[in-house]
Amino acid sequence: MAKIGLFFGGNTGKTRKVAKAIKKRFDDETMADAVNVSKVGADDFAQYQFLLLGTSTQGEGLLPGLSADCETESWEELLPKLEGVDFTGKTVALFGLGDQVGYPDNFLDAMGIIYQFVVERGAKVVGSWSTDGYEFDSSEAVVDGKFVGLALDLDNQSNLTDERVEAWLKQIAPEFGLSV
Ligand SMILES: Cc1cc2nc3c(=O)[nH]c(=O)nc-3n(C[C@H](O)[C@H](O)[C@H](O)COP(=O)(O)O)c2cc1C
């Protein structure tokens, strides 16, 4: 079994694209293939000590899922199924996609929702990210002045995505035992 589980949820495929690009950089022993959270349950999460979790924000500050008019179930429907999972001893890194121009009051909120969820259940979250270089008014994903994970905006700053992903992977590499 791969050491790191990689799970994502979104609506129009951008989060999937980033997740797949991340996986491409690592072999199958190191990282599992990127899996859409619409297809998983608690057992899939429980088996990994290391988790990379990606989400876009939908609605206005919502997790992707049916309430936000997404095509399929997603994080909204998965989180209740994970209520009983003990994240103690698990290391989690989060990446979020949002649109700081279109949704400046809810930029990347879904990443913050998932952060709260796993922290409340004992996870160690690594990979916080500076807010420098982004313009927005409010975000649930900012804690103590930093994003709780990698902040991506493919709608307005797609040219920065590759370098941001690269720098972030380098940052979390020691915690995840990655060679990058
Ligand atoms: C209907 C709709 C609502 C959105 N709401 C938010 C939001 O509240 N906050 C945010 O940061 N981005 C928001 N976005 C932007 C998406 O998160 C962004 O386009 C993202 O890259 C989509 O990724 P996906 O294709 O994986 O869903 C919204 C986009 C749409 C279409």
UniProtKB/TrEMBL annotation:
Keywords assigned: Electron transport, Flavoprotein, FMN, Transport
Statement: the UniProt record of this protein carries the keyword Transport: yes
Cofactor(s) this protein cannot do without: FMN
InterPro entries registered for this protein in UniProt: Flavodoxin, Flavodoxin/NO_synth, Flavodoxin_lc, Flavoprotein-like_sf
One Gene Ontology term of the molecular function aspect: oxidoreductase activity, acting on NAD(P)H, quinone or similar compound as acceptor
Superkingdom, natural source: Bacteria
UniProt domain Flavodoxin-like: residue ranges: 4-173
Matching PANTHER family: FLAVODOXIN 1, FLAVODOXIN 2
UniProt family annotation: Belongs to the flavodoxin family.
Task performed by this protein: Low-potential electron donor to a number of redox enzymes.
NCBIfam families: flav_long (TIGR01752), PRK09267.1-5 (NF006739)
Protein's name according to its UniProt entry: Flavodoxin
Lineage: Bacteria, Pseudomonadati, Pseudomonadota, Gammaproteobacteria, Pseudomonadales
